[in-house]
Amino acid sequence: MSADLSTGVESSILTPISKLLSLIETVFAVIASVCLGAIMMIVVVDVVLRYGFNSPLGWSYSLIGIYLMVAVFFLMLSDTLPMHHHVAIDMLMHRLPHRLRHLFLAIGYLLSTIIIALIVWQAWLRWMGQSAPTSALLRSYPGPPGLPMPSSTGSALLVLRTAYRTIGHVASAITGRTLVEMPPVTADETAAIESEGVDAAHPEARARTTNAKDST
Questions:
Q1: How does residue 1 score in pLDDT terms, banded at 50, 70 and 90?
Q2: Which of 1, 13, 38, 54 is deepest in the core (most CB within 10 A)?
Q3: Nearest Cα residue to 80 out of 35, 26, 122
Q4: What would the pLDDT profile of 128-161 be if each residue is shown by its tens digit?
């Protein structure tokens, strides 16, 4: 089986799923960027109207605080995971055998999937009007009726990404192959490769370190 030279991930039935998720994440990232730009423009216009003409935008704070800032945060959640920019503690992870490492990661992603799915469910219930205080709050900005909340939309995509990671790590633990993206090579793994040879590190670490050296 061929492998991605940049990540060391072997091609499998999960590869098209990851590519589809990456495409959706890119679209969400573009939308989040547009929302960030809209925030800046609205703030500038509001300041000019407020202090220049004494006629501020009455809906700016509600729209920014309730919708646009939420969109910037939640729509980027899933795209941040493949880039490994979320906080992660891997003090002992690099010392575990290949299969056991994938097993523990699968357990972590499974728990994450369950928790985030509950967040999506609660956010959706609130948006559908089953929480009166939230519904009243949402009516304070002139948003298009029926527009989905970015908190539930972005979190739903993150559920799909973490579920994909869960399945990938389970498959990797069973087969002994690397079928899903792994965290970046740690300093300890790099030192092990340089001092004890490539056999001292995990397969995916060896592949990524070799590719990194070749690119430089």
A1: low
A2: 38
A3: 26
A4: 764 444 445 445 544 444 456 788 889 999 999 9
DSSP 10: B
pTM score, two decimals? 0.74
DSSP 95: G
Q: Tell me the Ramachandran region of residue 84: left when phi exceeds 0, alpha when psi lies from -120 to 50, beta otherwise.
A: left
Alpha carbons 70 and 198: distance in angstroms, whole number: 44
Residue 114 in tokens? 């369950």
Give the Cα separation of 138 and 163 in Å (integer). 30
Lowest mean pLDDT, pick from 52-61, 88-97, 150-159? 88-97
The phi-psi region of residue 146 (left if phi > 0; otherwise alpha if psi is between -120 and 50; otherwise beta) is left
Let me know: does 203 contact 10? Beta carbons within 8 Å: no
| Torsion angle of C-alpha atoms 127, 131, 133, 139, degrees rounded to 10 | 30
